[in-house]
Design brief:
The chain has 7 helices and no strands. It has helices at about 1-20, 25-50, 55-80, 85-105, 110-130, 140-160, 170-205. It is mostly helical.
Length: about 210
């Protein structure tokens, strides 16, 4: 069930990233987030029921599912109800801290999952900076980061887990970390290029004939 939730997260991260880049209507993304979030909460309860008595790993897995599910539900409600996003931003900050703790908790048992949690933590902290602290110009960075890492950090690992090919060991985790870091750097470059192109369009604007410029 955890892998199915991860597969759903890959889709939700992609759609929300496209919405942040204004390539998908935000209300469409909000409805999709609500659907995915509620599905994950239901699967989280089922996960706890099926793995009752499974120990620490079961609880850690359920915690991750619920954190993702609640985030998507909150994102959907925030847009549809016009809540203002500040509360969502602080919630993302709290989840980011939990993500660091989960990365540490998984580091010994599953290094790859620990690396994935570090990536997701970075995404949550971007939302915290943007929504809670008011860094408005971060929207393009958030959008590109979600789009570029959604498949690498969620969809592909989900399929590997579903097919029983989940890689173990430090080498796989290190390679994944390097790949995700490269994608995040690329996202930063694309976000900066987008801002420069918009600025350039304003700078090179020429006055119309007869127009007075002060």
């Amino acid at each position: 069930m955890a892998y199915v939730c991860l597969l759903l997260s890959g889709a939700a991260l992609l759609i929300n990233g496209l919405a942040a880049l204004d390539l998908v209507p935000r209300r469409d993304a909000a409805v999709f987030s609500l659907v995915i979030g509620n599905a994950q909460l239901i699967l989280g309860v089922a996960h706890l029921t099926v793995t009752a008595g499974g120990g620490t790993q079961s609880l850690l897995g359920a915690a991750g599912i619920f954190l993702f599910g609640l985030t998507y539900v909150y994102v959907g409600l925030d847009v549809l109800l016009g809540l203002g996003s500040t509360g969502l931003g602080w919630f993302c900050g709290m989840v980011g801290v939990c993500g660091i703790l989960l990365a540490v908790a998984w580091s010994g048992e599953d290094p790859l999952l620990a690396v994935l949690w570090l990536c997701w933590t970075y995404l949550w902290l971007l939302f915290f900076l943007h929504m809670a602290l008011g860094f408005q110009r971060m929207a393009p960075l958030i959008g590109w980061s979600l789009v570029l890492t959604s498949q690498a950090s969620a969809t592909v690992p989900a399929f590997l887990g579903i097919t029983g090919l989940w890689p173990a060991g430090i080498a796989a985790a290190a390679a994944t970390g390097a790949g995700l870091a490269t994608l995040l750097l690329l996202a930063g470059g694309l976000a900066r290029r987008g801002r420069r192109s918009k600025t350039g369009a304003v700078v090179v604007e020429r006055p119309l004939p007869g127009e007075l410029r002060l």
